[in-house]
Amino acid sequence: MINLASRDILHAWGKFVFTGIGLGLLIGVTLVMAGVYRGMVDDGKALLDNSRADLWVVQKDTLGPYAESSSVNDDIYRSIMLMPGIQQAVNVTYLTMQVRKEGKDVRAMVVGITPNTEPTYPGWPPYLVSGRQITRSHYEAVADVKTGFQLGDKITIRRNKYEVVGLTRRMVSSSGDPMIFIPLKDAQEAQFLKDNDAILQSRRRVEGNPVFNQPGIPNLLEATLAAQNTNSYVNAVLIRLAPDFSSEEVAENITRWKRLTVYTRIQMEAILVGKLIATSAKQIAMFLVILAVVSAAIVAFIIYTLTMDKIREIAVLKLIGTRNRTIASMILQQALALGFIGFIVGKISATFAAPAFPKYVLLTPQDSIAGFFIVMLICTLASIVAIRIAIKVDPAEAIGG
């Protein structure tokens, strides 16, 4: 029995291979889209892993510090440290902004950490690929290598310049922006820094207040002006628990006595994935559905065209007694072969293209295996139209004009 599928593929191998390559590029885009979503989830988990915190203490009734803005007094960590089950409590600030270097802007998340503490404290970068950690209270920075900065570079954050003294890797925000670590006081200033005109207008507004023009209260005026130019807030307090203490129990204790919101690792991960990434996940899912439909349409059209080109040959097979099941299996084999070629090309193209994307693309073996079976299923469904046409072919066409 002549295998019609293999004979037809060999006869028109050029059309078949180029169609498989085109389909493969489409499948490659689909795999990359799935990898983008996986990368976003992995970025969120990496952010939590790198913080090395068991609990996040934030402003009451907020989803901070990553999904919403949060402000808590920077001295609250002292009273938290006195509570049972607390091993370490550290202030931290997060600010996403453009960092300048010699006229070039790099979007990054600037993290304020407390210097003169152990690098093992929550909030510090877990490891460095070169250089050292921050040791001074001002004007030093540790940057992720994704920023493109090098040791000794001078970068500008707001009005101040910082020297890059260390480089780390895979320290990113939930949106994939690389992190830059600077001393906490500098970060607090950068987050709420006003320009000179705003400071001048604020000073004139306070001095023009009749309350401060009364004799005997000059100290109040100076105190008010000083308070407007300082910042005593942070975005969150990162907590590491002592051994044998439950995160839920300690979180409930802090919430009850400090009137703040406390999130555990599981809750914070749910916020990052369920809140920040949810919209992007829906958008990616829509693209995946569209790409699947387009792939099915392409396969169906190609298989239909190839089947219509060999109607006479199919009629001859039916005339000599070939069963419909055999003819259907031949067409199905052709569709599956097209899908197999497309998947191989797509997997190779996705693997080589993923590192070139600005966002982190995570290609997992599970997605590849699932993608292979989905491609085979799409090709099977796409071959149904051609199979129905082939089964309805009249054997008399073999001897017709």
Question: What would you say about this model in short?
Answer:
With 401 residues, the chain is α+β, with helices and mostly antiparallel strands.
Task: Considering the chains and any ligands shown, give keywords for the structure.
401 residues, 3 domains, 51% helix, alpha+beta
Describe this structure in words.
- With 401 residues, this protein is of the alpha+beta class.
- It folds into 3 domains: 4-44 and 278-398, no CATH class; 60-194 and 229-259, no CATH class; 195-228, no CATH class.
- Helices cover 51% and strands 17% of the residues.
- The chain contains 13 helices and 12 strands.
- Strands 1, 3, 4, 5, 6, 7, 8, 9, 11 and 12 form a 10-stranded mixed β-sheet that branches. A two-stranded antiparallel sheet has the order 2-10.
- Helix 2 crosses helix 11 and helix 5 packs antiparallel against helix 6.
- The longest helix has 39 residues, at 13-51.
- It is elongated, with a radius of gyration of 32 Å.
- The mean pLDDT is 84.
Layout of strands and helices, then pairs:
Elements: H1 4-11, H2 13-51, E1 55-58, E2 72-73, H3 76-81, E3 86-101, E4 104-113, E5 130-131, E6 140-144, E7 154-157, E8 160-168, E9 179-183, H4 184-192, H5 196-207, H6 218-228, E10 233-234, E11 236-241, H7 247-258, E12 261-264, H8 265-276, H9 278-309, H10 311-319, H11 324-353, H12 365-382, H13 384-391
Parallel strand pairs: 4-9, 6-8
Antiparallel strand pairs: 1-11, 1-12, 2-10, 3-4, 3-11, 5-8, 6-9, 7-8
Helix pairs in contact: 1-11, 2-8, 2-9, 2-11, 2-12, 5-6, 9-11, 9-12, 9-13, 11-12, 11-13
